[in-house]
Please model this.
Amino acid sequence: MSDKHISSQFDTELNSISTHVLEMGGLVEAQLQQAMYALVHLNLETADQVLEKETIINQMEMSIDHEIISTIGRRQPTARDLRFLMAISRTTQNLERAGDEIARIARMVKSIIQSGSPRNLPSSELRVAADLAAAMLRKTLDSFARLDTVMAIAIIKQDNEIDDEYNGFLRKLITYMMEDPRTISPSLDLLFLAKSIERVGDHAKNIAEQIIFIVKGEDIRHTPLNKVESVIR
Model:
C-alpha cells in the first residue's frame, strides 16, 4: 500500500498481508512449473512434490484469511483500505483454486504414468499454454505489488491467448482420436489437463480484476473488456 496511515502499525499489518500474498503466489507459480515438468518428462517424483505443495498453499490461504479478519476487527478499515482487504481475500481464494487445478494436473500425470498410456501424444505442446499461464501469474503478482492497473488490463487481455491455445490443442486431440481410437482415453486425460491450465489463466485474470477494484473502486467482474478499459482512463 502506497498511502501512509496515521498508525504506522496499520501500514505494517497491510504490508505484511501483501507480502504473504506474494509469497503464496510465488509458490503457486513454482507449483505450475513443476507440474508441467512432471507431465513433459513423465516424472512421478516431481508430481508428488507438486501435491506436497498443495497442503502448504491451503495453509497459507487460511493464515492470510486470519490476518485479514484480525486486521478488520482491530482497525475497522473504510474506503480504500477495506477494498484492499476484500480484494486480498478474493486474491487468495483465486490463488488457492489455481493451486487446486495444478494439483489436479499432478494427479492426472501420476495416473498417466501408472497406467502406461501411449507416450506419443502431444503432451509437450501443453507447455505453451502452461508458460502463458505461468507468465500471467508472474505479471499478476508484479501488478499486485505495484498496484499497476495498466498491467492488470494487459493480463486480462492475455487470457484470450490461453483460450486460443486450449481450443487449438482440443482440435489436435480430436484428430488423434479420430485416427486411432486407442488414443481416446489418454487424449481425454490430456484434454482435462489442458482445461486445468486454462483455468489457472482464468484465476490470474480474476486477480488482475481485483487490482483494478483496489485502485479504482470499480468491481469489473463479468464486465466487457471495452468497458473495463474505460474505467482506468
